[in-house]
Amino acid sequence: MPWSIPDDGEALSTHQSVLFQVYLDALVEAINGTHCVLSGGAVSPNAGLVINVAKAATLSNSVLRAVTAGTVTIATADATNPRFDLVVVDSAGVKQVRTGTAAAFPNPPVRTADDVLLAVVYVPAAATAIAANQIVDLRVLRTQGPITIDKVTTPVVFNNTATIQTYFSLVLPNGLFLAGKALRINMGGDFLMNNGSPTVTLTVSFGGTVMFADASAVFSTSAVRRPWSFLFLFTAQGNADQEMIGMVNLPGGAALTAPATGIGDIAATAGQTNPISGIETFLDCDAADRTVLVQMTMSVANAGNEIRMESATAELV
To answer: From the CA atom positions of the chain, what is the Rg in Å?
Structure first.
């Protein structure tokens, strides 16, 4: 059971029933949504001093990290005294062991900055193997949303280009976006269309598959900047079944036309928001990381044609 301190007599040693400050710090950070486990990460015995760590998705200082399944090794036990070691995912998404100090009454070690705590391992004096009752699961699993898993607060700006540009990219770690999960992406900014009567194409893809693509009608040239906003909701109807719906506001004043992919249209008069729907995808999100991309393309390359994204957020809901 995640984040569960054993009662006296439940684990190998009475020491394992002590509630240490490092455990509480990890709990508070997870409740705040800055350092927590979103999926996976279970720790279990392997052989000798080697232990297994399952694949996981973590938030480290609010940054989403994909963690591959694998093993870590506990350092050689002290000959005289026991110690506590922490199993963590570091700020780069790498599995690590933070080795404690052996003592008659040991304390766990201090975590390195932005570590996400997975488990604490009790290492008895002269131990040569790790058993299940020496591992206490200290993952704080955030399974209920909404929780922010990505945000962009620095403007993303493209001009003088007619090639496709990425305004938002998010890697969903292997095992995170499974049946019953939903992902909400909000993004917005402003645009300037002041040369050559350009069009704008919006492309939304999931795991390399385009779910929606549509080109606007021609924009009349104007030196006035206009706002735009997008809202997308991706739903995992199964581990390998994804749907997308959205609301798009890209004021252009053009008539509606059928999109190249999906249902709906991105053309809109000022103040109007249009619903869109993407084609269904069937990508196994329990087999590999999957990337969500939101891209736009201007048909005319000129410094007077510019699309700027001011901010974006992604939430699991």
So the answer is: 25
d(CA 210, CA 92) in angstroms, rounded, equals 29
Rounded-to-integer distance, Cα 105 and Cα 125, Å? 12
Whether the CB-CB separation of 305 and 195 falls below 8 Å is answered with yes
The residues, ordered by sequence, that sit 6+ positions from 108 with a Cβ below 8 Å of its Cβ are 20, 22, 23, 84, 85, 86, 100, 120
Q: Helix, strand, or coil here: 115?
A: coil
Neighbours of 272 (CB within 10 A): 13
CA 228, 230, 233: angle at the middle one, nearest 5?
175
pTM of this structure: 0.89
CA angle 65, 43, 147 (to 5 degrees): 35
pLDDT in tens, 116-144: 999 999 999 999 999 999 999 999 999 88
The CA dihedral of 248, 254, 257, 260, to the nearest 10 degrees, is -60
Cα→Cα distances 296→18, 131, 203, 286, 306, Å:
54, 53, 6, 29, 11
User: Would you say 131 and 122 are in contact if contact means Cβ atoms under 8 Å apart?
Assistant: no
Q: How far apart are alpha carbons 123 and 101 in whole angstroms?
A: 10
Neighbours of 101 (CB within 10 A): 12
Weakly modelled stretches of the chain, pLDDT under 70: 1, 252-258, 263, 265, 267-271
Other Cβ atoms closer than 10 A to 304? 16
